[in-house]
Every structure is written in structure tokens, then in C-alpha cells.
Amino acid sequence: MAGNVAALTGSCVWLVVATVLSLPVSTTHSIVGATVGFSLVVHGTKGVNWIKMASIFGSWFISPLLSGIVSALTFLLVHHLVLKKPKPLEPGLKLLPIFYALTAAINLFSVFYKGSHLLHFDKIPLYGVLILTFGSALLVALLVKFVFTPWYRKRILAEVAKVKDKESLSSISVDNEFGKSRDVLVQSSVHMAHSSVKEYDVDQSGTKYPLKDDKETDVLYTEVEETGTPFNASTPLKSSANGIEDKTPEKDTLTTSFSTPLSNDNSDLPLLEKYDESKVFTKNNDDSKNSSSSSASSSTEDEETKRMIARENVKDKPECVALFSFLQILTATFGSFAHGGNDVSNSIGPLVAVWLIGTEGSALQKAQTPIWILFYGGFGIAIGLWIYGRRVIKTMGTDLAKITPSSGFCIEIGSALTVLIASNIGIPISSTHCKVGSVVAVGRVRSRENVDWKLFRNIALAWIVTVPVSGGISALTMFIFSLVM
């Protein structure tokens, strides 16, 4: 009993820490690591099935890789058949019954095949499972084809019309704002055209001298001051070797008057960047250090900018958004159902053992697990989602990669299909790892900059430390119990 309490403690503490850090880790691997931890304290290395542990270590790579491949291939198929079409609505509506039937088939098979003993699903033979699965999927396809699709077409067309109306109104508003901004820029350029720029050579004592061509300067000191010269757009700008009009005023200073706005051939807006020459430049030995630090900061900012731009370009057409939105919700619901069946079962396993020891004096289960324990686990996962779920939801839904309805559907279908196939052929797999692998793979297919690779690295490191950390906490707890008891 103490060992199971230690296992629950180890897995619980690590899962809470990982969730606070917004890292999606495997509940299954947490409870496995915690079980191994207390077993090492009680029985030593002989109490651990190391071959089984090696298969769990292998799942760190197998799960995301398999799921990522399946999800990426699914997305490429959807992209070829629907997304890249000039008018994706009709191709999408034709494939809608197949999408719904596939979703239903995957989830129904996972429910019926080796299903609940309480509901007697485990007594259904394989051919019965296949008949129930594909018969139900066919019924879903027919209902979607003849009942749902006609109504959905009208609804999508209405929603697309609303979206296009909003976009047209937004475009008009942007054009008006651009016109106002252009007027302000023109007025600013006219005001700047009344300025004159004075450049001086400053010696080490701070005395200013007129800038001369044959003198090597230590500091270039530039002043901009109002001259009141009337703006004359017809007067050309005379250039000298240094790119500005060169004339010598009475006070033996070099004065440059800008008498026309600068413009290029592609725009009628003044180019105000020229006025940056009014800055003060100094030769300093620390410039190289400042330059290196600023370049590193600039590099990081450039990466963030590229990622933001890439994610802005990852979008579905309005028709595709409407087509796949409900499909994404449906597949996410089934995915949550599968997570509940898998993760709750793993997490309450030690609790069931504690209950059996307390009531029957042995961990060998002869009777069915009481319903109240199952409801207890379901209540716990619901409360956890309510309180802490938003952290991991944000990581998976927005931070790791931008997800649209179409890519979200492919991610859910790919990960569910991978878990179903792998679990039934005996490949060790984690549903959490599968979902992360699908998000990264589909995000990478859409755009390389769409994926936050640093975040993915942190998630992968969290996977690796899950077993040893939860096991270490469990082992420490069990060691304390052994000293006290």
C-alpha cells in the first residue's frame, strides 16, 4: 500500500510541475516512472522489467515520429483534394461524408474492440466489432451526404458572404486611414524642407570648427535648425561629393538647405529617411561590443518576426474554415474521450490497488473496479482541465505551431489513428507524444517558421526527464515511509 501511495505522490508532483511550466508530458510515463521508483527501493533492480522499460524509452521517438508521418500525409491529401482548389467548397462538401465516416470508424472501433467489461463490449467477437464499426460509419456517411451536407452548404455560403462583406468594409477603412497618414507625411516633409543642416568638426576641447574637405574629423557634429526658407518644389537639389548641396555661408559654416522633398519613382510620398543624417556619430572602442550585442538581439528579433509573418500566412480560406470547424470539434471531442479512457485508467491504477489491499487484503483483483473510483478519476481529470488545462492548451494550440481548422482535423485524425493501430499491434506509444508529433509535423509541412523549435526542444527534454524525475520523487517518498514505518 505504501508503494502505491509513493507512486501516486511521485507522478502527481511531477505532473503538476510540468503543467505549471506549460509542458505536455505523458501521464502514462509519469505513473510508470513512479512505480519503478518505489520498486527499486523495495526490491532493488530485480523488481523491474527492464525490457519493458526499454520499449517505453523507445516510445519517446516512435510515438511522435509515427503520428507525425500519418498526420502530415493526411494533411497533404486534404491539401491536394480540397485546400489548394480555387473553389474548395464543392470538393470539400463531396468529401465531407468520408471525413465524418472515417472519424466515426476510428473512434467506434477503439470503443468496441477489447472494450469495457462493464458494458460487455469485451465479449463481442472481432467480426462483430467490424460490422458495428463499418456499419455505423456507413450510416454516418449517408446521413451527412443527404441530410447534413445540403443544410451545411447554405450555412457556409451565408457565412462566407458575411466574411467577405466584413473584409470589404475593413479594406475601405484601411484605405481612408492610409490617405490621412499620407497627408500627415506630406505636411511633415514640407515642414522639414524649411530646415537647414549645419555640420561642424569638433576638437577634443569641444570647440567647433567649420567642416573642411582636407581635414580628418574625430567627431562629426550635425545641427538641424529652422531657416524659414520658403518651400519651393521646383528648385532642384544641387549635390556635391558628399551627397548634399555644398556652399559656404558668411559665418564660415557649412550650411545645407533642403528646398525640395525627396521622392522615388514608385511613390509620391517624401522619403524622410535622408534626415537621419542629423544624428551624431562618434568613434568609440566600445562600438564593436555594442554592435555584437545588438546584432544578437537583432537576430532573435528577426527569428520572432519571421515566425510571426509565417504564422500570419498560415490561414484557411473562409470556405475551408467553415468546412472543417465542426470536424475539428468532433475529432477533438473523440480525442478527449480517448485521453480520458487512457490517462484516467493509468492514474487511478495505484488507487485501485490501495483500495483492494484495504478491502480484500491483497492487490490481486478478483472483482470489478467499483464505479465510484472511475467517477472519482473522471471528476479529477475534469477539475484539472478546468484549473490548469489552459496552460497546456495554449502550448499545444497556439505556441508550438499555428493550427487552423483543416490542420487541426488532420492532427486529431492522425494521432488517433496512430494510437489505435500501434496499441493493437503492440507498439509502445503515448497519446500525448503522438499529439505533439502531429502538431509539429503538420506545422512544418505548412511552413518551417511556423513551428517554435525551441519550445519543441523543451518539450522533448521534459519527456526524457519524466520517468527519472517521477521515479526519483516516488523513491524518496518510499524511502521516508520505510524509515517511519
TrEMBL record:
GO aspect biological process, one term: phosphate ion transmembrane transport
Tell me, what is one Gene Ontology molecular-function annotation carried by this entry? phosphate transmembrane transporter activity
A Pfam family matched in the record: PHO4
Membrane-spanning ranges: 60-83, 95-113, 125-148, 320-338, 371-388, 460-484
Q: Cellular component terms, GO, for this chain's entry?
A: membrane
The reply to whether Metal-binding figures as a keyword in the UniProt entry is: no
Swiss-Prot/TrEMBL keywords:
Membrane, Phosphate transport, Signal, Transmembrane, Transmembrane helix, Transport
Q: Tell me the compartments it is located in.
A: Membrane
What segment(s) does the record annotate as region Disordered?
229-306
Where do Low complexity bias regions lie?
290-299
Question: What is the protein's membrane topology class?
Answer: Multi-pass membrane protein
Bias (Polar residues)? 229-242, 254-267
Secretion signal: which residues? 1-22
- UniProt family annotation: Belongs to the inorganic phosphate transporter (PiT) (TC 2.A.20) family.
Q: What is this protein called?
A: Phosphate transporter
Species classification: Eukaryota, Metazoa, Spiralia, Lophotrochozoa, Mollusca
